[in-house]
Predict the 3D structure of the following.
Amino acid sequence: MPSRAAPEQISEYDVKAAFLMNFAKFVEWPSTAFASSGSPIAICILGKDPFGRAMDDVVEGETVNGRKVTVQRMTDPPAPKTCQMVFAAGAGKETAKALSGLGRGVLTVGEGENFVRDGGIIGFVIENRRVRFDINQPAAVAAGLTLSSKLLSVARAVEK
Amino acid sequence: MRTFRDIPIKQKLVIMNMAATTAALLLAGLGIVLTDSLLFRRYLQRDLSSLAKIIADNSTAALTFNDPRAAAETLGALRARTHVLSACIYRPNGSILARYAPRGSACPAVDRRDEIRFSREGVVVSQGILLTGQRVGTLMLFYDLGEIAERIKLYGSTVFGVLTASSLLALLLSSRLRTVIENPISQLVRASTLVSETGDYGTRAEKLSGDEMGVLVDRFNAMLAGIQSRDDDLKRERERFRFMAESMPQKIFTATPTGDVDYLNRQWVEFAGPGLERIEDWGWAQFVHPEDLEENLRLWRHSIETGEPFHFEHRFRRADGKYRWHLSRAHAMRDAGGKISMWIGSSTDIHEQKEKEEALRRANDDLQQFAYAASHDLQEPIRNVAVYSEIVSRRYHDLLDAEGQQFLGFLKEGGRRLATLVNDLLAYTRAGMAEIVEAPVDSSVVFEHTLASLAEAIRESQATVTCGPLPRVYVGEAHLQQVFQNLIGNALKYRNEKAPCIHVSAVGRGADWCFAVEDNGIGIDPKYKEKIFGVFKRLHHDRNYSGTGIGLAICQRVVERYGGRIWVESQPAKGSTFFFTVPRHAQPGDPAQVESSVG
C-alpha cells in the first residue's frame, strides 16, 4: 500500500535501532544498575554491529529520566554497571546463554524466537515483514527490571 | 367566547393557580436546563480532556513500536462511550496509526495544538501523545453533542412530567383551596340576590373568615342593617302619615309630581262611597260638579306646572248624588334639591258655611236694595217738604207770628238735614256697588274736581289744600271723588283755631297705591280709631261740627269694595293722617256682585 510504503523502505536495523532506544523509555532500572546517579543509560552492542550509524543517530541528544543515552560497542561481555542494555545480533543459543549470565540490572535484547526461550529478556522477531518483539517477563523480573505494561501490550508474545 | 373577566371567580382562581404553577415550573426548568447544559459542557470538557489524556498515554507504546493493532485496541476502549464519533491516532508525520469510527465517521484533521473545540457538529479534542517529554503522535477525538440534546430532552421530559403532575396537584389543591375564597363570595352573592329579589333587609351573609372577605361580609351586613333600620323608619313614618291622614276629619289626598292622585284617606271613601278607585289618578274629575270642572282642571294643571299651591272651592258629588261645597288646598312637597316629590292636599267640607255665607250675602243685598230704594223714594217727599216750607216761608211770612216763623224755621232746617241724610245714605249704598273700571282714572284730576266742589268751604276756612304727584288708579271716578271729598271735608270741618293745612300724597307699596290725607286739625283720640268708620258714628255732637256720620263709613265701603283698606293715625290737637290703599292694577270684576246690586 502506498501509504504504508514509506516506513517499509526503512531498513530492518533502522527500526531495531529505534526500538532499542524506545525500550529504554518503557523499562525501569534499579539504581544499583548504574555506577552513579549521573551515569548514562548505555546501550551496548556486543559483537557484530549491524546498525552502522543508525544507532548513534537514534540516541543522539536523547535523555530518559534525566540520564543521557549512549552507545557502546564491545566484543566481550561487559563488566557490571557499565551497560544497562546489551544487544547481540544473530540468534545463537550461546549468545543467549552468555547474556543471561550478565546478572542483575542489564536488559538483554537478542534476535529470533528462541532468544527469550533461552533466557533473554526481549527478542526481536519478524512477523509479516514487520519488526516485532517477544518478552520473557520472569527473566526481566529476575534481572530486577520493571517493564511497562504498555511495552508488554505491544509485544508479540510474553513469556510468563 | 367569554373573556377572562367574565368567567366565574372559581375558574379564575384555578386558571391563576395553574398559570402561576406552570410559569414557575417552566422558569425553574429553563434555569435547570440552562445551568445543566453549561455545567455539562464544562464537565464534558474535563471528561473528554482526561479521556484523551488516558488514551494518549496508553497509545505511547503502540506509537513508538508502530503497532496499529495495539493502538486500535486502546481506542477500542472507547466503545463504552457511545457519543464518540471517531478517534484517531496520528503519527508525528501526520499519517494515521489507528482509527476508531463505529459509525464510519471520518477522522478530524490533525491539529498540533492541544485543545477542545466545540462546534455545531460536536466536540473535537486534539491531544498530543507524549513519551518522556517528546511528542510521539497526536490523538484526535470527535465527540457528538447528542448527549447535550439527550440531557435537555431528559430534563424537558422531567420538567414536563413534573409540570403535568404539579398541575394536576394544583388543580386538585386549588379546587380545595378556592372554596376559601369562593365560599364567602358565594355567600355575599346569595345574600345580595336574596335581598334584591325579596326586599327582605333582614337577610345576612354568613361570615366564613377573618380576612378581607370577612371584613367585606361584616360591612355588607352592617349596610343591610342600616338599610333595614332606615326601611323600618320609613315604614313607621309611612304608617304615621297614614294614621294621621286617616284620623283627620278632612279628606286627604296625595298626588305624584305629574298630578296623578295616588292616595285618598278613609274620609273620601265615606264621602264618595264605593268606586273610590275611580277617584284615583285623574278619575276624581268625574266627581266634580260640571260647572266647577273646567276651572278646577285649569288651576290644578297650573299648580302642577308651576309648583304654586292649589286653592279652590268646588263641589264634589257625594255617594247619594248630592253635591257639596269643598275647599281644596294642595301643596307641593319638595326634596332637598327643590324638586317636587309629591303633592299633599286636603278637601274640607265647607258646604254649611258656604250656604250661610250665601244666605248672609243675599240678606245683605236685600237690605242694601231696600236702603237704596228707600232713600231713593224718600228723596221726593223730602224735596217736597223743603220746597213747600220755602214757599210757605216766602209767601205767608206775614201771616205767621213769631212762634209760627220759628217753627217754620225748624221745619226747613229739619227738611234740609233730612235731605242731606238721605243723600248720604244713597251715597253709602252706591259705594257698595263697585264699578268695573275699564281705563285708569287720573287721581290728580279727581283731586282738582274735589277742590272745586269744596271751594266754598275752603274759602270760608281760609284753608290751604295741596297735593303731591298722584297716580292713575283703577277706581271709579265718582267713588274716588267721594273718598277725597269726605276726607278733605272732614279735615276742613274738624279744624282748630288755626287755618287748616291739608296735603294729599300717594306712594306705591307692593301691589297697592297708598294714599295719605294729612291735616293739622284737632286730631282723634286713639281709642276711637276704629269706631269712627262705623255708620252714624259721630264723636262730636255739638253744632260746631255738623254732619250725618256717614262720610267715613262711605270711604271705608268704597275702599274695601276695591280690595283696599283705610285707617287713621293721629295725635290729638296736632292733626290726623288718613291712609287708604287701592290696587295698582285692574281687578277682575265680580259679576255676581254687580248683578245682584244692580237688580
Summary: The longest strand of chain A covers residues 67-74. The beta strands of chain A are 27-28, 41-46, 63-64, 67-74, 85-88, 107-111, 122-127, 130-136, 146-147, 157-159. Chain A touches chain B through 20 residues (CB under 8 Å). The two ends of chain A are 36 Å apart (CA to CA).
